[in-house]
UniProtKB/TrEMBL annotation, chains A, B:
Cofactor note text: Binds 1 Mn(2+) or Fe(2+) ion per subunit. Binds 1 zinc ion per subunit.
A molecular function GO annotation: transcription cis-regulatory region binding
Pfam families assigned: FUR
Entry keyword annotation includes DNA-binding: yes
Annotated source species: Desulfurella amilsii
Sequence similarity: Belongs to the Fur family.
Binding site for Zn(2+): C80, C83, C119, C122
Protein name: Peroxide stress regulator PerR, FUR family
Amino acid sequence: MRKNTKQRSMVYEELKSRYDHPTPEELYYAIKPKYPKISIATIYRNLRILAEEGKVIEIKSDKNVLRYDAKTEPHYHFKCTNCSAVLDLDIAYNKELDEELNKKGYKVNYHSIIFYGLCPNCAK
Amino acid sequence: MRKNTKQRSMVYEELKSRYDHPTPEELYYAIKPKYPKISIATIYRNLRILAEEGKVIEIKSDKNVLRYDAKTEPHYHFKCTNCSAVLDLDIAYNKELDEELNKKGYKVNYHSIIFYGLCPNCAK
DNA sequence: GTAAGTGCAAACCTTTTGCAAACAA
DNA sequence: TTGTTTGCAAAAGGTTTGCACTTAC
């Protein structure tokens, strides 16, 4: 049975309050001032739990770091190769792609799309 | 000026000979028997060089590991959540998506799509 | 009271780096 | 010859784990 802890809800609330898809380390440094005794291990453990519960999503946009997103409706991302920002896109999720593969014998859960290039700011 | 080394061409040839999108470590253990004194650092360095040269592609399908692909024409991937295989898909690359974003001020290089679910084998 | 969660430090795993020796051009 | 690459070992990142203590229920 899962318990509600202050630490877990702080991780979740922090994530819901921002749209920059932070890494575990970034979350740690954001929460630390509000709750100085929190440990980075707690951040990791809770991110894993929240992801298992489907409350947050993992974004594999970077080479060696995972990023997290509390917006769980299927959506796509843009990774700027200049400023490193990861942005949400408002392109509609394409269910037909999943169905196309299901017809071929796959059983698709979801798909992720990540665009790489320059964001509008850096493209100027 | 770049030199041609036996090690670099072995990494590239190994990658071209297989379709399972190996990790650096998997490449290391594949090449080691043929060239026992090769170092894992050399694998990493050459993968980076080959990626810079556009001869191989990095696939961010896993949490903590990069996978590599010597098939450089844009294409999409399927990651099986059961057997962990990463498969090439023959869905056409959707250039319109890139153009759609370009119209909105982005400057898209390319996009990657990764599907998650069960591959035809595991779906049975 | 008790099982779940925490903090800390150590361990782990993957990737990068410094450096002297080896090698391609 | 000389600038690049290699192998090795050490270091650096990022993530996980063991354990005693704390907390939610």
